[in-house]
Structure prediction request, 386 residues.
Amino acid sequence: MLPIDWRALGLQLGALLAILISAIAALRGGTRRGTTWLSTVGLWGSRLAWCLTGGGERLAVVILVLTAAISALLIGRLILQGFPYSGDEWSYVLQAEIFSRGRLQVDSPTYPQFFDVWGMVNNGKFYAWAPPGWPFLLTPGILLGAPWLVSPTVGALTLLAVFGLGRLVYDGTVALLALFFMLFSPFFLLHSASFFAHSGSLLFITLCVFFYARGIERGADRDFLLAGLCGSTSFLIRPFDQAVIFCPLRAYLLLLAMRRQIAVRQVVWLGMSHALGVLLLLGYNTLQTGHPLTMGYHVGYGSPLFDLHFPGRHFIAEYLLHLLVWTFPFVPLLALLYSLRLGETKPKNPSEQRWDALLFLVCLANIIGYAFVPFHYWVGYGPRYV
Prediction:
């Protein structure tokens, strides 16, 4: 088990307890007015934004997003020094260099054994194990001579997507509170400063869920098309994450179609646009490895990536503990408590209840999915496999 900074854990626990105690104290004065103690936490976020911006929600979003982007940029340049410290990060940058030359692969050097690099196939062809999505997004940064600029930009766009999703399915206060907590999450900031693919995956998964939710709420065909395209992009970055997370979303969409609450054509639009990413990945695999179902990972590892014996189950508890440490202050736990609404006196509307359950299932699906993956999270900035 990797070491845990128990001092940081204690500080976060203290912050969590301070929030909960103050919120419970506020409950005594707010119960008669129908105010829940957890909604008081959201009210604090709203009041903070009001003090900072004079009441302008858009200005609050701009301030939080720019602060996160600048923070990630400074971390990347001053602490990480714009350097890809892990083998995974190196492979993404090297593949982006190859893409920037208009190539999918290059020939191995004359003496390939002297140029073996973690994460790269080097068997006469030289290319990354990883899918093409994230190296492709890094390519503009390579061409501009500033690859370190890509992840902070993606992180800023992710915050905008999170705000849009929160405002759509809940309200502006919840959306601003989500941005506030993400701004103080080292888990989010460090990945937004690094060359890991997780920031790109998070952006397009969030966009996929946003357009998916908007399609259900508003019934526009275009939203289902956009959800599928964002899902396709996410699949090209980290296929397993997208496949696992999409399972509860797909099941719920089929349920709505069976109940005739959405049109079958909307399910078709989502399915067809989402299949585009699958087809592109199959084509990329064929060009790189000679077989559509053989990824660079299979060539590099020489063994299956997944196992039906749940080899990753031993790491789940450790992942969740580290997830609490790497977020502030215990954001996953706060989110769970908010969903449960302990001590609530006023029930949520059906739409909020639906999205509480669905988003919880999305998180749960990711945890269960990685029980099949025999990877520890090794070098990285937090439990990046959860």
Q: What stands out?
A: Residues 263 and 275 are 19 Å apart (CA to CA).
